[in-house]
């Protein structure tokens, strides 16, 4: 683990982190922590892990020089880390392959997961199919609407998808349901948490499995530029792709690390999911851990909004809450309209279609570009590809031909 994160009681990052779960889950988390602790120092575990990432998932992912965008702005040199080219189309697979191998060691046969954008659900369903586990995926009913293509694939990969209708029917509600299932079934079930949140050891373990992203960025930028990047941008939902990209550079003080949150319809509207950049998150304990949550003065969780399901979450990684507090990780928010503009620009200039989540990282980078010079090296971690967002983007761009096509196909299914 990076030095900057050391020196706190186990599972804590500053005052954030910990484990706040029902008593009966403590031995389960201990078992998981011990198993992960042993795997971390076991060369054969990592050989199997890296071989699967290479031969099954397609790593390493390229670092693409965005020549057209760079020319267009005439400022810093822009590189894109292509997590979209992973098997399943997003970074989420890096984590689930690691947790799948941990499950094998634990002898568990059933895996449950929560998902927002559906990418983690698809990745978990893929891992379960490959490794021979039964998969149950909890997803908010609202997110099912927004990300139906991913639900279709999860079911066709053999997973059961359970629609969660409580609360705002989004990610936080899916997490609550997954926690309940885990508390009832932990003997044969592993909770494959999809991001760097939740009780210890999940934040550390998920960051560890995702840190392959930053390790590759370092190697690739060194090969291309013979020095480290000046800035790395990543979108920030729960924190897994940003910490995956940032971890390698946490102790490199000259590399600026910038996380892009969902500014939704703007700070004043209250309809956003920015916990850190808008400074609206308040320290609290929920969903098994302590962090900055979007909550009211009575501790009730607030409704969140983002055009991207994957960033639409009340909490944030305790590691990110700490890094932001000490100023090592900068934060900014991109509003929905800025995200759509960034999505269109990247698609048209580079022929690369980013996920709406990843488009937040591009949007913040674009807002900052004026502050860079031609000598600066910028890396944007593109966490996933945009195919899954076709309905939302069609809607946001008011693409009438697409809407008509969807309507016709929909009517056809009814007949
Ligand atoms: C493509 C993509 N990027 C980013 C995220 C946000 O999650 P995290 O902050 O854990 O990377 C998601 C979540 O579903 C996602 O699907």
Describe this structure in words.
By secondary structure, this protein is an alpha/beta fold. It has two domains: 19-54 and 91-206, Rossmann fold (3-Layer(aba) Sandwich); 58-89 and 211-396, Rossmann fold, CATH 3.40.50. Helices cover 44% and strands 17% of the residues. Strands 3-4-14-9-10-13 form a six-stranded mixed sheet, sandwiched between helices. Helix 11 links the parallel strand 9 and strand 10. Helix 4 (92-106) crosses helix 9. The termini are far apart. The relative contact order is 0.15. Bound molecules: pyridoxal-5'-phosphate. Residues 90, 116-117, 119-120, 195, 235-242, 310-311, 355, 357-358, 383-384 line the site of pyridoxal-5'-phosphate (PLP).
Short description:
Helix content is 44%, strand content 17%. With 415 residues, the protein is of the alpha/beta class. The termini are far apart.
Alpha carbon gap, first and last residue = 57 Å
The name of the CATH architecture of the largest domain is: 3-Layer(aba) Sandwich
Rg from Cα? 20 Å
pLDDT below 50 for ≥5 consecutive residues: which ranges?
A: none
* Helix/strand class: alpha/beta
Shape: globular
Mean pLDDT: 96
CATH topology of the largest domain: Rossmann fold
* Percentage of residues in DSSP E strands: 15-25%
The share of residues in helices is 40-55%
Physical arrangement of strands within the biggest beta sheet:
3-4-14-9-10-13
Biggest sheet features: 6 strands, mixed
In N-to-C order, the SSE pattern is: EEHHEHEHEHEHHEHEHHEHEEEHEHHEHH
> In total, how many domains does the architecture comprise?
2
């Amino acid at each position: 683990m990076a030095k900057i994160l050391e020196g706190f009681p186990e599972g804590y990052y500053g005052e954030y982190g910990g484990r706040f779960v029902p008593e009966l889950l403590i031995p389960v988390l201990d078992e998981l922590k011990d198993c992960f602790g042993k795997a971390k120092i076991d060369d054969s575990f990592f050989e199997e892990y890296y071989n699967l990432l290479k031969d099954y998932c397609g790593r390493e992912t390229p670092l693409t020089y965005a020549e057209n965008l760079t020319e267009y702005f005439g400022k810093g040199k822009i590189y894109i880390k292509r997590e979209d080219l992973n098997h399943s189309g997003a970074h989420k697979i890096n984590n689930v392959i690691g947790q799948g191998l941990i499950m094998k060691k634990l002898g568990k046969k059933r895996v449950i997961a929560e998902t927002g954008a559906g990418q983690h659900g698809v990745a978990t369903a893929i891992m379960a199919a490959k490794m021979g586990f039964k998969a149950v995926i909890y997803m908010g009913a609202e997110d099912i609407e927004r990300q139906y293509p991913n639900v279709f694939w999860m079911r066709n990969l053999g997973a059961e998808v359970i629609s969660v209708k409580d609360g705002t029917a989004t990610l936080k509600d899916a997490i609550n349901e997954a926690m309940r299932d885990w508390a009832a079934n932990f003997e044969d079930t592993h909770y494959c948490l999809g991001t760097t949140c939740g009780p210890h050891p999940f934040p550390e373990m998920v960051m560890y499995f995702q840190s392959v992203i930053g390790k590759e960025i370092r190697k690739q930028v060194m090969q291309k530029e013979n020095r480290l990047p000046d800035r790395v941008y990543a979108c920030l939902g729960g924190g897994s792709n940003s910490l995956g990209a940032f971890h390698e550079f946490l102790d490199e003080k000259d590399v600026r690390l910038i996380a892009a949150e969902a500014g939704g319809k703007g700070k004043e509207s209250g309809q956003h999911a920015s916990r850190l950049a808008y400074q609206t998150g308040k320290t609290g304990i929920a969903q098994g851990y302590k962090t900055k949550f979007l909550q009211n003065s009575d501790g009730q969780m607030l409704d969140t909004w983002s055009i991207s399901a994957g960033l639409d979450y009340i909490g944030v990684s305790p590691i990110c809450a700490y890094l932001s507090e000490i100023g090592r990780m900068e934060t900014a928010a991109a509003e929905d309209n800025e995200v759509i503009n960034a999505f269109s620009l990247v698609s048209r200039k580079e022929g690369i279609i980013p996920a709406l989540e990843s488009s937040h990282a591009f949007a913040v980078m674009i807002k900052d570009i004026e502050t860079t010079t031609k000598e600066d090296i910028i890396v944007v971690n593109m966490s996933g590809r945009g195919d899954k967002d076709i309905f939302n983007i069609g809607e946001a761009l008011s693409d009438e031909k697409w809407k008509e096509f969807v309507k016709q196909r929909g009517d056809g299914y009814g007949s």
